[in-house]
Amino acid sequence: NGARVQGHGPAFGASGAGATAVIRPENIHVLNSDSTVRGNVLNGTVRATIFRGAQREVQVDICAQNHLRVFVRDADTFHKLKVGAPVQLHFEPKDTFVYPSDAVLSETRP
Predict the structure, then answer these.
(1) Rounded Cα–Cα distance for residues 91 and 28 (Å)
(2) Mind listing the pLDDT tens digit for each residue in 15-64?
(3) Confidence band for 88, pLDDT divided at 50, 70 and 90
C-alpha cells in the first residue's frame, strides 16, 4: 500500500524500492486510531472480528486491495473492536521480514 516499514531480510535495491513485508499475525498489535506509538504503524479499518475459541481474529483493511489477519490475545481489546472502526496496527521491526516484491512472488508461484 506504499507504507514504509522497517525490518530485516536480504539486502536489495534502494530505500523506497518495491517490497513485501511479512509479519506473523500474533506479532501485530491493534491500537486505537489516535495512538501515538512509534515504529512500524499501518492505519486501517476493522473489516471483521471472529471469535475462534482460544484465538480471536481481527481482519483489518489497510488499503483497497489488502487486508491483514491479526490475532488478538486480550479479550477486552477484542470486544471493543467494532466493524468499520479505524485502528492502527503496530509491529516491531525485529518481527518484520522485508523482501523484494518480485522475490516473494517468484517463491509463491507453482
Answers:
(1) 5
(2) 666 778 888 888 999 988 888 888 899 999 999 999 988 789 999 998 87
(3) very high
- Closest to 33 in 3D by CA, of 22, 43, 47: 43
Of the candidates 95, 108, 110, the one whose C-alpha atom is nearest the C-alpha of residue 9 is: 95
CB atoms within 10 A of CB 6: 13
Q: Which amino acid is at 79?
A: H
No. of helices (H) and no. of strands (E), the chain: 2, 7
Angstrom distance (rounded) from CA 59 to CA 101: 23
State the Cα angle at 13 between 2 and 69, rounded to 5°: 40
Residue 25 corresponds to which amino acid?
Answer: P
Supply 96's cell numbers: 518484520
